[in-house]
Amino acid sequence: MGVALPEAVAAELATSADDHLIQLLTPSGELVADEQFHYTGSDQDLVEDLRTMLLTRAIDTEGTALQRKGELGLWVQSLGQEAAQIGSARAFGSNDLIVPSYRELGVYLALGLDPLEFLGTFRGTAMVDWPTGPANLHLPSFVIGTQTLHAVGMAMALQRDGRVGNPNPDDNGAVVVYFGDGATSQGDVNEAFVFAAAANAPVVFFCQNNQWAISEPTTVQTPVPLYRRASGFGFPGVRVDGNDVLAVRAVTEWALERARSGAGPVLIEAFTYRMGAHTTSDDPTKYRSADEVAEWKAKDPIDRLRTYLLAKGLIDDAWLDGVAAEAATQAERLRTGCVQLVEPDLADSFDLVYTDTPEHLHRQRAEFEAYEASFEVNA
Amino acid sequence: MGVALPEAVAAELATSADDHLIQLLTPSGELVADEQFHYTGSDQDLVEDLRTMLLTRAIDTEGTALQRKGELGLWVQSLGQEAAQIGSARAFGSNDLIVPSYRELGVYLALGLDPLEFLGTFRGTAMVDWPTGPANLHLPSFVIGTQTLHAVGMAMALQRDGRVGNPNPDDNGAVVVYFGDGATSQGDVNEAFVFAAAANAPVVFFCQNNQWAISEPTTVQTPVPLYRRASGFGFPGVRVDGNDVLAVRAVTEWALERARSGAGPVLIEAFTYRMGAHTTSDDPTKYRSADEVAEWKAKDPIDRLRTYLLAKGLIDDAWLDGVAAEAATQAERLRTGCVQLVEPDLADSFDLVYTDTPEHLHRQRAEFEAYEASFEVNA
Amino acid sequence: MSTLTMAKALNAGLRRALANDPKVLLAGEDIGALGGVFRITEGLQAEFGRDRVVDTPLAESGIVGTAVGLALGGYKPVVEIQFDGFVYPAFDQIVSQVSRLHFRSHGRLSVPMVVRIPYGGGIGAIEHHSESPEAYFAHTPGLKVVTCANPSDAYWMIQQAIADPDPVIFFEPKRRYHDKGEVDVDASAAPDSLYQARIARHGTDATLLTYGPMVRTCLDAAAAAEAEGRSLEVIDLRSLSPIDDATVFASVRRTGRVVVVHEAARTLGMGAELAARIQAECFYELQAPVLRVTGYDLPYPPSRTEHSFLPDLDRVLDAVDQSLAH
Amino acid sequence: MSTLTMAKALNAGLRRALANDPKVLLAGEDIGALGGVFRITEGLQAEFGRDRVVDTPLAESGIVGTAVGLALGGYKPVVEIQFDGFVYPAFDQIVSQVSRLHFRSHGRLSVPMVVRIPYGGGIGAIEHHSESPEAYFAHTPGLKVVTCANPSDAYWMIQQAIADPDPVIFFEPKRRYHDKGEVDVDASAAPDSLYQARIARHGTDATLLTYGPMVRTCLDAAAAAEAEGRSLEVIDLRSLSPIDDATVFASVRRTGRVVVVHEAARTLGMGAELAARIQAECFYELQAPVLRVTGYDLPYPPSRTEHSFLPDLDRVLDAVDQSLAH
Ligand SMILES: Cc1ncc(C[n+]2csc(CCOP(=O)(O)OP(=O)(O)O)c2C)c(N)n1
Ligand SMILES: Cc1ncc(C[n+]2csc(CCOP(=O)(O)OP(=O)(O)O)c2C)c(N)n1
Ligand SMILES: [Mg+2]
Ligand SMILES: [Mg+2]
C-alpha cells in the first residue's frame, strides 16, 4: 500500500477546496452576487456603516496617538478590520449577547459604547468595566480563547430561558463571540466547539482571521482554511470576505437567525487583515513584508465602501467632510477625556474582590490606608 | 433568508455522510473487500493474532478476578477491544513509538510486555514503570488526553532525528497514540491535532471509540462521527471496524507508512465496544441496556476471527485447547505473581522526585525513617 | 434529625438546592444516569431533568468555562470535577476568569458558582485520584475555598456555597463519604456562616488545626491523648479561604501550642500560611513553634504506601509530644 | 567581562546553550522572527534555524505538552510562556506531567526541560501581564523553580537550568530586563549551584529575604537604611524550590529579625513557607515575628495603582521598623 490518500479520505480533505470566499462588494467597490447570501439592508444602512467605520478608524488612530504621547499604556488597533466588526454588529438582534475579545472597537462603537469607557483599561485606570455601556455587551477577555466557553455557557442559559426556537423570532436570542485566527489553536476554543455542538447551542463563533497572531502567520496555526474546522465538530463553517461589510452582515444575519431558530452553532471566518501593528508594543516590520501590507491596502474595507457609495451618489464630499469633522470632534473628546479619567485608588480594590469583603481584606485595606496616611503625616 | 443551510455548507457537513466503515472481516467471519484497504498479513499472522486476543481476554478476566478478590485496587478491562488493540499493534514498525492511554492490555501483550509489570499500578505497589518492557513503549497516562501532546512532541523529535521521509523505509519511524472517544473533547487532544498538523508530524492518532466514556455515550461528546474531526485540522480521518483485526491492521499500516514517509498525521477512529464495565469500580447497568450489550456481543472481535480461522481450517479445537491451556497457565502465573509483587516502602519515594534529591527531601526521608523506627523500638 | 452518610447528606443538600431555586443546575461528567462516580448526584437527573443535571462532554475547562457563561446568564451552576487530579485542565478558567470577573467588572458582575471536588487520599486509588490541591486555590484571590468534615456540614455547607454570590471551591473529603453522622435538616440548624471555623473539640494543652479528611484523624488523636491525660483542642477550619483567623488565634492564645495537620504536601500547604499568621499574631503567646504534620513533598505515592504518606493518629500525637517538649 | 542588560544576558545565555548542545531547542509564541515580545530570543532563529527556534501555535498546553514529548525523545526544550498570566492553560501539563514523569517512571525517565516565564509587575501593563504565580509551582513536588535578579545570574542560571536533568520553571523579572550589570562569561565565573541562595548584601540588624524583581528594591532599601545607621542583610533566594534553608537559617540566626518581600499575594505566597520554616527552625533565635511585605490579596489591580500594590523601599523599611520595634 502506497502513501497516497485513499479516495474517500482525499475527497474529504478536498471538500470546499475552492474555499469559496463569500463576497458581495469587491475591493474596487462593485457589487457582486453570491449564490447563497444576499444583502438585506438598505442603502441608508450602508451610509451609516461607512460613518461608523470612519469614526472607528479615527478613534483607533487617536488611541494610537494617545499611547504614543504616554497617556495610554497600550492600544490595540482595529485598523483594517472595520467591516468585519461593523458588518457583524449590524446583524445583532435585540436579544443577542455579544462577547468580544480585545480588538473590537468597531463593535463597541456600533453598539453605542462611549469609547471613553474602555479607554480606562488601556490607561490603567480601570479593569474592564463600562457602567453606561449596553447591557448585552460582555467584557473583553485578554486570555486568548477563554471567552468562547463563556459564550457557549451564555447560549446554554438562553436555551434554558426558553429564548431559542420560538415561533416568534422576536422571542429568540443568540450569542456572538469574537476571537482571532491564533485563538483557534487554544484548547478552550476547541472545547467551546465541542460544547456548542453537544448542546446545539445558539452561538455564532466569529473568527476574525486577520492573517496574523502577533508575528505568526495563520500558517503557523493551521495548514487548511480555518472555517473548515467547524464541520468536524458537527456544525457549519463559512468563510466571508471580512473587508466587505455587506457580505459580513449577510453571513452573520444568516448565522444568527439560524442559531436563534434552534439550528445550532456556526463558525464564521471573516477573512480580513490587521493593517496595523498587533498593538502599540509591536513592530511588524520584523516579520512581515511591505508588499503584503500594500496588497491588503488595496482591499481596504473603507475604501471600497466609500467608492461604492460615492459612485451610487449616496454620499458626496460634503458628507465625507461632515464625518471627518465629527471624527475630529470625537478624537478631541477622547484626548480631553482620557487625561481626565479618574485616577484610581488602590483602597477601592479591596472591596471588589468579593461581594462581601472578608475580614483579611478589611485588615489589609486598613493596613494600606494607615501606611498611605503615614506619608501625609510625615509630609 | 431562511435557516436552511446554504448549499456549500450543507455539502461540507454531508461529506462522508455514508461514514464508510472500513471492514475486511464481517461479524459472521466472512472476508469482504474494501476498495482502498487490503490485508497484507499472512494466515499465520491471523492465527497468532487470535492467540494474542485470546490471551489478552484471559488475562483481562484474571485482572478483574484479582480485583474482586481484593488483590488489586482497580482493574481496567480491555474486553471487546482486542482487535483494535492487537490489529493496530501488528502494524508497528521497529522504529515506531507507542503511547498508550490506560486500557491497552492488548497492545502491551502484542509488544511482549510481561503483564506482571503493569499489575503493580493497579495493586498500588508501583507508579507506572516497566523496567523490562519494550523500549518503544511509553508509560500510560491517566489524565485523559494529555498523552496525545507527548506523542506529537515525540514525533517532532523523530523529525529532528532525521527519522522521517528517508528513501529507505527502514530508517523511518512514527508515533502511535491511543485515546478514547471521550478524550476527543479535551482541549489537549485538539491542541495535539493543531500541533501535529502544523508540524506535519509523523503521528497516528488511534482513537478507540468504544461508544462510552464511563456512563456517557459518544453522542454526549459529538453529534457527528469522530473520524471527521481530523479534516478540519488538515489531515485525514478514517473510520475502521475496530472489531475486525484485519481491517485495523490494514488501516494502521497505511497510516503509519504515510506518517513515516513524511505525509503527516492521520486520525483513525476504531469503531468498537467496551463490552465490560468502564473499570471494576463501574456499574454499567445504571446507564446502558442489555440489548445494546447483546447487539455488540454479536460483533465480538474474537468470535469472528475464530469462526473464520476454523472455517478456513487454519486452527482446530486442539489448537484452541492449547491456547486455553496457555491462558490458564498465564492466569495462574498472574495470580501467584500478583501477591508476590514487592511491597513498596515510602522511604524509596523520596529519591525518585528529582534526579538529584534536594536537602529538604533528604530531611523528610530521615524524619520518616526515624518515625518508622520509633515503632520498632517500641515494639 | 436523621443519620446520613456524608455522600447522602451532600445528595440531600443538592436536592434541596435544586428544589428551592430553579436557577440552580448541576453539570459534570457522569453525574446524570450514573449519579457521578461517587453517586453524590444519584437520582437527581431523574428528578430534575437533563437541563438541570447535565452530563457534559469530557473536558474540565469546558465544564468550568461554560459554567461561567451560565452564571453570567443568571444561573447558579454547581459543577463536579470527577477527581481532585482532574481539576488542573480547568485551572486557567478558575484562576483567571472565575476568580476575577467580579473584580474585572468593578463589582458589576458576579459568578455565583460552585466547583465541587472530591479530594484526598486513603482510598487505595491509582495516581491522580488522591490529591489535595486546596492550596493552589486558597492562594488565589477572588475564590472562596471550603471543605466539609462531617455529614451535617456537608448538607449545610453545600447549600450555603450555592447560595453564596461569589465562586466557591467546595472540597469533599472522599474517604469520608461513607462516614455517618446526624443531620438536622431544619433551617434553624444551619451553621451561622460558611466561613467560620468550628471548635470540634475543646482542649487546653495544644491546638490541632485541621480540616476535611483530617478532622476525624485529629479527633481520634485527641481522644487517644485524653487517655494519656492530655487535653487537645481540635479546630475544623471549614473555610480555607478566607481563614477564620479569630477562632484560630483565640485557640492558640489559650493553648500556646499548635500542630497543623493536612494531607497536602508540606511546602506551601495550608500549614505554611497558618504558621506564618500564627507566629506573626501570637508571637509572644506561642510556647513552641507551630508544627506541621502533612503529606511529604512528594507526588502522591503508590497506594500501598499511602498509610505512611498520610498523617495518622500516631504522627499527630508524635508532633504534639514534640510541641509539648518545647 | 561585559556590561549587559538582563535581556541581553538571557539572550547570550540561550545562544551559548544552543551552540554548545545540539539537543537544546527553544519553542514558544513569537520567539522566531520577532525574537519574542521581550526580544529575549532575538536573532536566535536566524542563527540556529527554524527547527531549533520554533514558533509554535498559540496554545500553552500544547507548547508544554509537546515539549514533554521532545524531552522524552532526547531533546532539551526551553519553552517561553509569553507572559506570567498565560501559563495557566499549561498548568495541567506542568503539574501532572512535567513534574511527575521522573517519579511516575520510578526514576527511569526524566524531562530535562525549562519553562521560561517573564513575571511580575511594575511595567504599566493591562491585566494578566503582571502576575507572580511562583507559589503555585513551588508547592508542586517534582519541579524546580528559580528566578534571576541580575544580568550575571540571568546569563548563568538559564544555562544551568537547561543543563539540569530535571524540569525547571525559570522566572524572569520582566521589569528588570533592562537593568544593566557586569557579566563574566568565563566558565570559572559560573555560580556553584543553581539552587543556592546568595547573600546580596551583608548586614547585622535584620534580614531581608527576597528574590527576582524585589532584590533591587531590597538592596535600595538596605542602602537607605544604612544612612539611618541600620545594617540590613539582603538574601537573594535565587531558588524558590528547593529553598536553600541553610543560607536562610544562618542569616536569621545572625540577625534575629526577618522581613520577607515579594510581589505575589500574601496568603500562601513564598513568605508563608519561609515564615513557617524559620519560626520552626529558629524559634528561640527570632527576636520578632517574621514579617511579610507582599502584594495584597487582590487580583493584580489596574496599572495606575500598581505603585501602591507593589512592595517598595518605604514599605520594606516600614516593616523593618516594625520588626526592630519588637
Ligand atoms: C493564553 C494567551 N496566550 C498568549 C497571549 C498573548 N497574546 C496576546 S494577543 C496574541 C495573538 C492573538 O492572535 P489572534 O488570535 O489571531 O488575534 P489578533 O490579535 O490577531 O486579533 C497573543 C499570543 C494571550 N493573551 N493569552
Ligand atoms: C482529565 C480527566 N478527567 C476525567 C477523568 C476521569 N475519567 C477516567 S476514564 C474517563 C472516561 C474516558 O472515556 P474515553 O476517552 O472514551 O476512554 P475509555 O475509558 O472509554 O477507554 C473519565 C471521565 C480523567 N481520567 N481525566
Ligand atoms: Mg489574528
Ligand atoms: Mg470510550
Summarize the topology:
The complex is a heterotetramer, with two copies of chain A (379 residues) and two copies of chain C (326 residues).
Chain A: H1 7-14, H2 43-68, H3 82-89, E1 97-99, H4 105-110, H5 115-123, H6 146-160, E2 175-180, H7 187-199, E3 203-209, E4 212-213, E5 216-217, H8 218-221, E6 237-241, H9 245-260, E7 266-271, H10 290-297, H11 301-311, H12 317-340, H13 346-349, H14 359-378
Parallel strand pairs in A: 1-2, 2-3, 3-7, 6-7
Antiparallel strand pairs in A: 4-5
Helix pairs in contact in A: 2-3, 2-11, 2-12, 3-9, 6-7
Chain C: E1 2-5, H1 6-20, E2 24-28, H2 44-48, E3 53-55, H3 60-72, E4 76-80, H4 91-98, H5 101-104, E5 114-119, H6 134-138, E6 144-147, H7 151-163, E7 168-173, E8 180-183, E9 198-201, E10 206-210, H8 214-227, E11 232-236, E12 239-241, H9 245-255, E13 258-265, H10 270-281, E14 291-295, H11 306-309, H12 313-325
Parallel strand pairs in C: 2-3, 2-4, 4-5, 5-7, 6-7, 10-11, 10-13, 13-14
Antiparallel strand pairs in C: 1-8, 6-12, 9-11
